[in-house]
Design a protein that fits this description.
Layout: H1 8-26, H2 34-47, H3 52-64, H4 68-74, E1 78-81, E2 85-88, E3 91-95, E4 98-101, E5 105-108, E6 111-115, E7 121-123, E8 127-129, E9 135-139, E10 145-147, E11 151-154, E12 156-160, E13 165-168, E14 172-175, E15 181-183, E16 187-190, E17 194-197, E18 204-206, E19 211-214, E20 218-221, E21 226-228, E22 234-236, E23 240-243, E24 247-251, E25 258-261, E26 276-279, E27 282-286, E28 290-293, E29 297-299, E30 306-307
Parallel strand pairs: 1-4, 2-5, 3-6, 4-7, 5-8, 6-9, 7-10, 8-11, 9-12, 10-13, 11-14, 12-15, 13-16, 14-17, 15-18, 16-19, 17-20, 18-21, 19-22, 20-23, 21-24, 22-25, 23-26, 24-27, 25-28, 26-29, 27-30
């Protein structure tokens, strides 16, 4: 394998060149993305040591222009970040390709990750942060984002604005002013982990056709736990959801949806302990939507566990009201 000595001058030139190209396309400053630039450079060295600077520059330019197939001609179509620090004035890492994060810290004043293609993103460890009035991860394309572990910390958690799927298997999302996950037409699946919204916002909010499915984990929100204001369905089969200053689960109009708590299978025995839904004003609010209640427990002020009509319950079961001292 050819080896070359990468002088600081050539490396600095590469950084400046990439910054120049991207500033014209996105008006974003990524000059501090040292780990990303180094990965492009290292791969380019393997392909053509004498022209490494140009190969890396062209690939970064084509990828950032949305020409993914052209970028693939230059080298493998993925980022893998195992450690280190990436920081950007606006965006930490912008990609339309596949991204694997196994460690390190990625920060962007606006977005730590800006994902705009059909590539998949896998977060296994590490820390992603932002400080501005934006979401730490902005997924505006069609690629799936899977969070297996790690920490997402910022003003907002994850924005899913395209048709993509967000899967939370573990890890922690902590936000202070925006929602934990903001969804439109994509799909949200929470199987574990913790979503903690400190201030007046919702744990998960979908406002169009996007569905929300929760099978486990903990969602704790300053206002409402899980909300739909569109036709997107909410299905909760496990986990603990708390709305400290609002509802645990709610359909807030103007369109109708379907809210399903639990499973309705012939072989099922109704589970009276899971999922757990806790609302400080109302437990579950369903104005005009279909509300199916098969499993679990809803906790709220007396007489406020459910607002709306329960359409379906398991055969042979009925809803029981009770009280507990807290």
């Amino acid at each position: 394998k050819n080896k070359v000595r990468r002088s600081e001058d050539s490396y600095a030139k590469l950084v400046r060149s990439i910054k120049l190209h991207l500033s014209g396309l996105f008006e974003k400053n990524i000059s501090s993305n040292a780990d990303v630039v180094r990965k492009y450079f290292n791969k380019a060295v393997e392909l053509d040591p004498k022209e490494a600077h140009y190969w890396a520059e062209y690939a970064f330019f084509e990828e950032s222009s949305g020409n993914r197939e052209k970028a693939k001609k230059y080298f493998e179509n993925s980022f893998q970040i195992d450690g280190g620090n990436i920081s950007g004035t606006y965006i930490g890492l912008s990609s339309a390709l596949n991204v694997i994060i196994n460690g390190g810290t990625i920060h962007g004043d606006e977005n730590a990750l800006y994902l705009w293609g059909d590539g998949t993103t896998e977060i296994n460890k590490g820390k992603l942060t932002n400080t501005g009035d934006f979401y730490t991860i902005a997924n505006v394309g069609s690629g799936t984002v899977t969070v297996n572990n790690g920490e997402i910390l910022g003003v907002g958690g994850i924005l899913n604005k395209g048709t993509a799927k967000i899967i939370i298997n573990n890890g922690t999302i902590t936000t202070k002013n925006f929602h934990g996950i903001r969804n439109y037409t994509g799909t949200i699946e929470v199987n574990g982990g913790n979503i903690n919204v400190v201030d007046w916002c919702d744990g998960i909010w979908t406002s169009s056709t996007g569905d929300i499915k929760v099978t486990g984990g903990t969602i704790t929100a300053g206002t409402n736990g899980v909300v739909t204001t569109g036709t997107g369905k909410i299905t909760i089969t496990g986990g603990v959801i708390t709305g400290y200053k609002g509802y645990a689960v709610a359909e807030l109009g103007p369109e109708t949806s379907i809210i399903t708590i639990g499973n309705n299978e012939d072989t099922d025995i109704a589970n009276k302990t899971s999922p757990v839904l806790i609302g400080s004003i109302i437990g579950v609010k369903s104005s005009e939507s279909t509300f199916n209640f098969y499993d679990g427990i809803i906790k709220a002020p007396e007489g406020k566990t459910i607002s709306g009509s329960v359409i379906n319950t398991p055969t042979g079961y009925r809803i029981i009201n009770g009280t507990e001292t807290i």
